[in-house]
Amino acid sequence: MTPDSLFQLAGPIAMIGWACLALAPLAPKWADRIGGFAIPAILSVGYTAVILGYWWQGQGGFDSLSNVMLLLSNPWMALAGWVHFLAFDLFIGGWITRAARREGIAHLLVLPCLLLTFLFGPVGLFLFLSIGAARRLFTLRTREA
Fold this sequence. Notes:
The chain is mainly alpha-helical.
């Protein structure tokens, strides 16, 4: 398979995971198992295979922006970088979904966090952490009152 064909495969696989997380209130255990664990694991296996098979072809490194850009100029390394994003962002989305359920945060508040995590990773995580902090602060203040 080519990097392009694997790229075309990885995106839809990740989208299945995101759909599971978005629909988590309907089947929470399956959302956790599929969207929060199985699909990130499958993507991680794919990432590992690409790294093991093609890392040696990459030039550049992680010590400067120029070297990162050079590293990602190789199609296999760019694919690895993309699958890295897909796997980790989806794993964080699963964590957000589980943490929200555990903390009693309404799923309607979680959905924008998931969307932002899908699109911009740390922005969605930051929004979720902010919602959780605000909720704990509000709960603490209402208990003190």
